[in-house]
Design brief:
2 copies of one chain form a homodimer. Chain A has 417 residues and is α/β, with parallel strands linked by helices. Chain A is built from 13 helices and 18 strands. Chain A is globular, with a radius of gyration of 24 Å. Chains A, B: Keywords: Amino-acid biosynthesis, ATP-binding, Kinase, Lysine biosynthesis, Nucleotide-binding, Transferase. Chains A, B: Its EC number is 2.7.2.4.
């Protein structure tokens, strides 16, 4: 017997037929003797509808009222799933965030979970009751509903799993796991059986949109074994109750992964823009002079590369931002030209960042060199490089995105089982 | 300055344009210097949609889960109205039933309000804040959302008014007040400026569907002056802020009504059926033998008339029920024939109960005789009569319904100002 948290997103509970399918997944785990909490999102489309209404009511709306309106979507789904489970003979009840309670900070609309009291839920597990928890929400210190921001139900699920000390948090989604790269680009991409928290964090933040980044962070901190699997596989399909050979990907501590690969996956992020400031005065405080105004303008800067120029008294500063912010960023920098001190701004859109990710590269040399050689052989020009302990990110022209992903996927042997 | 509770129903908040109209009504009262709490229903159609989903999920659903699902409709409206008020510069916040809290009993789906703690609301009135309260709901002793049953927002509003010791509870509705009778039947029907609680109770329970019966009972018990007015009148229309000459009807204590009329209104209830048991053995317990089985079959018995028959040893028992229950009632009685002991069952459908209502008749003789004479002059046959202190109800053939209403309306001078 295990204690499991199961999470189902909006498309999995889009209508009553799908909610019945979710209930059958839950019943399967209950029938296997497990203690179960289920976390649900709003029915697909509902959250957008509610958000749109708050915008229509006022463009500048009170985030606390936004939360009261938008959180109603998950409230509905939790009640409907509880009813459906009961009709199948499963003892179940719904829980709103304020009932458990799931305590958050006061950042309405994008609140962070501070604490979950799992006492009541655990007591009811003991009585054989399934908890159906409305995702995406908790209660703030002001005793008002606080939502966690879009996609927050993943975070709810992991937090509940930590709060009730679950053995596993199953995230049911419209994909059947995490792949070595995007299968739409590389058909030979393989589903990973396991991936370490740190690797998943890099995959998620780079655009492999299986799980919300915050939920992976939370899973890593609390060591919640998180299992990504498909909600559209039939509940009674072979292997669905066989966790030793699971139809999904387990995100877990690296110690649990027996055969660690050097490289686990290739991620990419589209629509990047690059800005270069030429001949920036090389003096203390110049980075602050550049990135301060950009931060104030809410422009998210990603890769930053700094080179000493030939004469040794000035520097070239290159960084990437989302393409959509490029014109705004150039305007901000031109306005700050005197304060910063530079010769020229150069900018380029339509770039792609391709990343090689793997915990194994910490103990293996030559991983980066392999990537550079492979891309050079295909004639792909590298515009910028940044590296971390477990990741190499390479900025290239967008036209070469697919070729680069396939090349790197192959050169690290990810297409071989 | 007064303290006012304003209540708006589903059609008044059906979309964001109408919600803006509601906000303008609220702003008018705030600008007049009043302290204001607003109680809102769900957007028109939303509650039906949510109820239908709970039925689809399971015909026999847990009432506590039904409540969690259905109460979300009012939660949405309360947040949207708060946002809209804020955008007009009005300091406002939404309140869910569990936040105030509005404490109810445990009868989920049809809960009764036990207690409202108005402390927090009153403190915020002092800070100039408008409370926007989600109607139709509270929190049960099990710490779960409990709804008050359909139309419960009227009851919420009156209960909030009692809880915060409001000077008045304004019920905004799609009619502009309570009329001496149904204007669709008698175009000369007049809007009443005032009506006593007891009279309104009779009017409401007899099918003048302006206010929920329970809300009138509650208003009577707590002496909440309740003002029925139109939400579709423009907020800045003449007289809307002139409570001394109000465009609506004030339901209040009879002591407040200076010029009490003998008869206040003529109500009617359609689709009544009459059942007569002939030659029932006249013995103790016979009433229980008849009405016990009917109650067990959930058949609502209204008028009951008992006459001693000629021979003095048996009696004729006549009563009315909703037409739709007639066949069921006859079957129940036939089954209990031996236990009851009677000669025959006679039944008739398509009847109408017309009622003359007025507190003044307590101190005036001859009110009933006037009705009987007037109906007789029009050739309308009376099938049964019941009376209370402030009401005379007459059962007639349905074909004469409109004629009877118009005749009685005229004979008591209700068509004259």
């Amino acid at each position: 017997m295990a204690r499991i948290v199961m999470k189902f997103g909006g498309t999995s509970v889009a209508d009553l037929e799908r909610i019945r399918n979710v209930a059958r997944h839950v019943k399967r785990e209950v029938d296997s003797g497990h203690e179960v909490a289920v976390v649900v999102s709003a029915m697909a489309g509902k959250t957008n509808e509610l958000v749109e209404w708050t915008r229509e009511a006022s463009a500048l709306h009170d985030a606390r009222e936004y939360d009261a309106v938008v959180a109603s979507g998950e409230q509905v789904t939790s009640g409907l799933l509880a009813i459906t489970l009961q009709s199948m003979g499963v003892n179940a009840r719904s829980w709103q965030g304020w009932q458990i309670p799931i305590r958050t900070n006061n950042a309405h609309g994008a609140a962070r979970i501070l604490d979950i009291d799992g006492t009541d839920l655990i007591r009811r597990f003991g009585e054989g009751q399934v908890a159906v928890v409305a995702g995406f929400q908790g209660i703030g210190p002001d005793n008002r509903i606080a939502t966690l921001g879009r996609g927050g139900s993943d975070t709810s699920a992991v937090a509940i799993a930590a709060g009730v000390k679950a053995d596993r948090c199953d995230i049911y989604t419209d994909v059947d796991g995490v792949y070595t790269t995007d299968p739409r680009i590389e058909p030979a991409a393989r589903r990973l059986k396991t991936i370490a928290f740190e690797e998943m964090l890099e995959m998620a933040s780079l655009g492999a949109k299986v799980l919300q980044v915050r939920s992976v962070e939370l899973a890593m901190v609390h060591k919640v074994r998180t299992f990504v699997r498909s909600s559209f596989t039939e509940p009674d399909a072979p292997g669905m109750d066989d966790f030793d050979n699971p139809p999904g990907t387990l995100i877990c501590d690296e110690d649990e992964i027996v055969e660690q690969e050097v490289v686990t996956g290739i991620a990419y992020a589209k629509d990047e823009a690059q800005i270069s400031l030429r001949r920036v005065a090389d003096r203390p405080g110049v980075s602050a002079a550049i990135f301060g105004p950009l931060a104030e303008a809410h422009i998210n800067v990603d890769m930053i590369v700094q080179n000493i120029s030939e004469d040794g008294t000035s520097t070239d500063m290159t960084f990437t931002i989302p393409s959509g912010d490029m014109d705004k960023a150039v305007a901000v920098l031109e306005k700050a030209r005197e304060a910063i001190g530079f010769d020229a701004v150069q900018s380029e859109q339509g770039l792609v960042k391709v990343s090689v990710i793997g915990i194994g590269m910490r103990s293996h040399a030559g991983v980066a060199a392999t990537a550079f050689t492979a891309l050079a052989e295909k004639g792909i020009n590298i515009k910028a490089i940044t590296t971390s302990e477990i990741k190499i990110s390479i900025l290239i022209d967008g036209a070469y995105a697919e070729l680069a992903v396939r090349t790197l996927h192959s050169v690290y042997g990810l297409d071989k089982t």
